[in-house]
Amino acid sequence: MSLLRAVATVSGYTMISRITGFARDILIASILGTGPVADAFFIAFKFPNFFRRLTAEGALTVAFVPIFSRLLQTKGRDAALEFAEQVMSILGISLFLFSFSVIIFMPTVMLGLAPGFAEQEWLFDLTVDLARITFIYLPPISLVALLGGILNSFGKFGAMASAPILLNIILIISLVLFENSMETKGHVLAIAVAISGLAQFIWLLEACRKNGCIPRLRLPSLNRQIIKLFKLMLPAAIGAGVVQINLLIDIILASTLSSGSISFLYFADRVNQLPLAIIGIAIGTALLPKLSREIQDGETHKAQKSQDYALEFGMILALPATIGLLVLSELIIIALFERGAFSVTSVDATAKALFYYALGLPAFVIIKVLQPSFFARYDTLTPVKIASSMVFVNLVLNIILMQYLEHAGLALATSISAWLNALLIGLILKRKRFHKPGKKTFIKIFKTFLASTVMGLGLLGILEFIDESIFSSGILSVATLVTLVVIGLILYIILVFLFRVIRISELNKEVKSWIENDQ
């Protein structure tokens, strides 16, 4: 499967996932608003996801995929699946014991995670209750990442990319059917989160069965490959832990600000995560198995081209998305969330956070695109060192900027830290001679920036002629947003070809290659 086709597969399902996710968030915003119950649920929802990224997406996947891919190429399917079975048995037992312990000691854990809630006993107790329920989500969703790594290594990206759609559908159905059936609406959502973890696990198991790569249950045992995996996972886990520490710091500090701050950051981040997931995460997911094969086969020239292509492609999508979010941040929040319990004040606060998050979007995409160069070479330590250096930077920036911008200062600190992270990754890749972008790549990115800027200026010009009263109507604001997005997209496509960022001949060549690979 070509890189573009793999990215398109992941991006397509991710787009559906994000659309259903927005429907879910619109419903939550309308019913819960940005009050204390919403803050409690969002902390409870984020908590198992912190550890999921630590144990699965952040550490296991980047260590597992290169080893599994190599075994697949050198020793065949049976040997690779035997390795996966050992990993699954050890991971499953470890996650169960860990989750059981955390659930028991959740009040103590929550004192450190949300110290600002301790002053309100009912809010603290609610957050503990919801977090205990949502933490049941961790074991199955972490195993989902393992099963997804197996399928991705076989070039099957659809099942893993589509799994989050189940989470969104289950949360939507739960709110619609059982909104008032429990103590709080937060309890309804927390139970739905736990159920969705099991649903996604079953979904991936069935996908593995259909593709003949389902791992069997076996007693755990240590061998050379498992020990190697743990050695690779340790620095990756520390690195993922460092990233999660930054997120935890944001929540801890936000819990000390005015009520609703956690919700403002959550909704703004959800919007910002849409292009990041469709672009950066999709490219990184598709690139890692490809780079692993090319580097292990000694095809360093191909690996260099794949990395350059991924970087160019990422910026062609990320830069216009960034400009669009900056220009349309307030209209986006109005169109998506301003209804029901989500007030005008919530719109202003959330739009401000979205603006500052959007500044870091290209940096996050660059990080997702460049990191596979380390992981494909079994170097999981270097990204850890880089991420670790960002913790102190992010903390200092948080403390300084929140004094002036409150919750939005936390978003701006995140973006600045991301740019420094991306810069360090690029410099170290160059120094290690793992990757140095070619002159053509830099020129293409600069032209992309120019095209995106002109598009943004065009949208700003159009906004000057729009009557602000339109924004007070839900239907009109949505229609206006869709119209502006379509206009911006058409304008950007014209500019991309006008500035020769993409040539018709290159596009025809890629489409022809795609068709040939499909036959």
Structure description:
The protein is mainly alpha-helical. It folds into two domains: 36-234, no CATH class; 260-519, no CATH class. 83% of the residues lie in helices and 0% in strands. The chain contains 19 helices and no strands. It has helices spanning 3-32, 36-57, 60-74, 77-104, 106-113, 121-134, 138-153, 158-178, 185-210, 224-254, 261-296, 300-337, 344-358, 361-375, 381-405, 407-431, 439-464, 474-498, 504-518. Helix 2 packs parallel to helix 9 (185-210), helix 2 packs antiparallel against helix 10 (224-254) and helix 4 runs antiparallel to helix 7 (138-153). Residues 513-519 have low confidence and may be disordered.
Tally of helical segments:
19
**Secondary-structure content class:** mainly alpha
pLDDT < 50 stretches = 513-519
What does the radius of gyration come to?
23 Å
Percent of residues in helical segments?
over 70%
Strand content: under 5%
- Distance between the amino and carboxyl termini: 11 Å
Dominant shape = globular
SSE sequence, one letter per element: HHHHHHHHHHHHHHHHHHH
Largest sheet report: none
How many strands?
0
**Number of self-contained structural domains:** 2
